[in-house]
Amino acid sequence: MSIHSRVPLVRTVDEITGSRRLRRMRKADWSRRLVQENRLTADDLIWPIFIMEGENRREPVDAMPGVFRMTVDLAVAEAERGAKLGIPAIATFPQIDNALKDDAGSEILDENNLINRATRAIKAAVPQMGIITDVALDPFTSHGHDGILRNGIIVNDETVEQVTQAAVLQAQAGADIIAPSDMMDGRVGSIRDALDATGFQDVPIMSYATKFASCFYGPYREAIGTQGLLRGDKKTYYLDHANSDEAVREAEQDLLEGADMLMVKPGMPYLDIIHRLKHELRVPTFAYQVSGEYAMIEAAAANGWIDGEKAMLESLLAFKRAGCDGILTYYAPRVAELLKQEG
Fold first, then answer.
1. Other CB atoms closer than 10 Å to residue 285's CB: what's the count?
2. What is the CA radius of gyration of the chain?
3. Backbone φ and ψ of 105, nearest 5°
4. E strands in 153-294
5. What are 53-88's pLDDT values in tens digits?
6. Burial class (CB within 10 angstroms; exposed 0-12, middle 13-18, buried 19+) of 334
7. What domains lie within the chain, and their CATH numbers?
8. Residue 283 burial (C-beta neighbours within 10 Å; 0-12, 13-18, 19+)
């Protein structure tokens, strides 16, 4: 057969498809917009920021281009900027001085610690901005774990007692949402009991219900100053990334204990988990696009291998398609700026 010869269609395309031509609604920009199933808006964004001691200072996080640690006064200014962009909430993470760290992470119980001071300052200046705080101990421990270390073991019940006390202090400082990420058994129910008993019945809990033992957290650990401190790994309390049924059981347990919202962390490698939680449990579901996900996009963009802006937007829309009600992302202000310009 000649390379230029044609094989005739036995049936016409209309006969093959039954005249169902699915490209019809893709032919023009207006029609594509008309039938778009998912959209990303500023309302979907939660902005994680890193706080450090001092005044009028910011430090770049080398592994996360465009992300900085900042002092409380600059965090207040950034919160004001975020509010103007329509970002509903920020999540604050502290870099604690190593001199204040110990095996029990006891600095988390100081009502005037860095995270609580930041909450009070931001809430005073930008009361309309939601503030989400984490009660995990890893920024405060000398060993980098999320719980109290005893004889080489992360002790569950002592850790639960400590994060429960810390949750009340954070609520007293003005935190709008308590988001425990330590993955200790029973911590959600204990925090709910304590918040209710101290007059914070209206403070919701966003549980990091399915936090996986992942390699994607590395740049975050640099940002909060725990890189190199970690003794061993976190596999005895974080989820095995091979397991999805276990993730659903964890989420169900947290809901039974009083969680109002669920978090999946990391995000992109776990879109199947997001989809399962949203469609099986039907509660507000969030994802954390973690530091490693951010760093991969930024590194590829810096090398000219991908269009960074398009990759950023596509990755965030994937979370919406999977079922997310919102996304914690370091891209929040950049995306909000783009959406504002488009609007």
1. 26
2. 23
3. 60, 40
4. 153-155, 177-178, 206-211, 261-265, 285-288
5. 999 999 999 999 999 999 999 999 999 999 999 999
6. middle
7. 41-342 (3.20.20.70)
8. middle
- In this structure, the number of other CB atoms found within 10 A of the CB of residue 252 comes to 16
Reported confidence tier of residue 2, pLDDT bands at 50, 70, 90: low
State the Cα–Cα distance between residues 268 and 290, nearest whole angstrom.
9
Tokens of 300: 């590829």
- Let me know: does 79 contact 129? Beta carbons within 8 Å: yes
Q: What is the DSSP letter of 18?
A: T
Catalytic residues: 211, 265
Q: What is the pTM of this model?
A: 0.93
DSSP state letters, 149-187: EETTEEEHHHHHHHHHHHHHHHHHHT-SEE---S--TTH
Which tens digit of pLDDT belongs to each residue from 235-244? 999 999 999 9
Helix, coil or strand: residue 266: coil
Q: Which two tokens stand for residue 315?
A: 């990755």
Tokens representing residue 240 in the block = 């095995």
What is the C-alpha separation between 166 and 51, in angstroms, rounded? 18
Contacts of 82 (CB under 8 A, 6+ apart): 47, 90, 129, 332, 333, 336
